[in-house]
Structure formats: structure tokens, C-alpha cells
Amino acid sequence: MGSRHPNPRLVKIHRSYSVEEIARLFKLHKNTVRAWLRQGLEAIDGQRPTIARGVEIRRFLTDRRKRAKRPCGPGRIYCLPCRAPKVPAGNMAECVATGDATGTLQGICPDCERMIYRRVNPQKIGAVRGDLDVTFTQAGARIEETTKPNVNYGSSEGDHR
After folding, report:
1. Which CATH architecture best describes the domain 8-68?
2. Hey, which bits of 23-158 come out as E strands?
3. Which residue has the higher pLDDT, 15 or 129?
4. Rounded Cα distance, 34 and 28, in Å
5. Residues contacting residue 82 through CB under 8 Å, at least 6 positions apart
6. Domain limits, the chain
7. Average pLDDT, the chain
8. What is the per-residue burial (b if ≥16 Cβ within 10 Å, else e) of 67-80?
9. Positive or negative CA dihedral for 139, 143, 146, 150?
10. How far apart are CA 140 and CA 27, in angstroms?
11. Which one in 10, 32, 43, 115 has a CA-CA gap of 20 to 30 Å to 143?
12. Is the dihedral of CA 77, 81, 84, 89 positive or negative?
């Protein structure tokens, strides 16, 4: 089964491909390639077999991917279930710093009420903040960083499964 986003770099730009060769290259069905031809992938001519230049296939796939992108502007976090950038509920977000230059901006989606996350550099939060009210917290210690990890995994004492 093919990928939802075929890698355009698999195409050799100085070669011509038939519909079957394109389908085999990306592990897609031939009808998917034929749909691409209807959506704007240009064939060399209108004759059969339908052949497309490699450079044209690469251009079509990269343009198609660029159109599908939804960049997040300042003050927005991308919500995966909604498939759109959203301003967190209440214009509030929390920046959890996991290191000096890494962190996660997290909030709640106003539509589906799920947690939404965006990777950020806490030192450069001003560029992504927008008009959000951001609170800063430090990430909790990992189990390997603790001096005395909690090893009680049973529900009661003596219950070690």
C-alpha cells in the first residue's frame, strides 16, 4: 500500500514514466495516478500510453503537498482531530520546558476540547506566543533521573504480579 504523501524525490527528473511505472514507483493504484492526471499532472501528449515527464511529476507532487500544508501563525496550535490551527480555549496555554532549548506549548482545543501541543523553544516564545496568556512550568523528573524511583506497581502491599 502506498503512502498518503508520496516522496517526490523518488522520481528521476530526466526520465519519462507511464501510468503503470508511476504507480509501481510509489506503490499506488493506477487509478490514483489517473486521478492525478485529472487534477493537473501534465502528460507529454494526449496519446496512449499516457506518459509524464519526471520533472513534471516532481513539480506536481511538491505543489500538491504545499497546498495541503496549514502553517500555524502566532498564537495558534495545530489540532490533529480538527485538522486546523486553533487558538487555545480562553487564550491560555502552558509552556512546559523539557530542556534549555526545547519545550512544548500546550492548551485545549476550543472545538473538540482535546489537548493540543506545539513544540517550541522557550527562549524564543515571543515569536509563537501571539496574544496568548502563557504560563511556564518545568517538566517533571524522569524515572532515571530520580534518586529513589517508585517501584510499587501493585495495588496493595504484597501484591507483586
Report:
1. Orthogonal Bundle (1.10)
2. 51-53, 77-79, 84-86, 92-97, 103-108, 115-120, 133-138
3. 15
4. 11
5. 109, 111, 112
6. 8-68, 77-140
7. 87
8. eeeeeeeebbbbbe
9. positive
10. 44
11. 115
12. negative
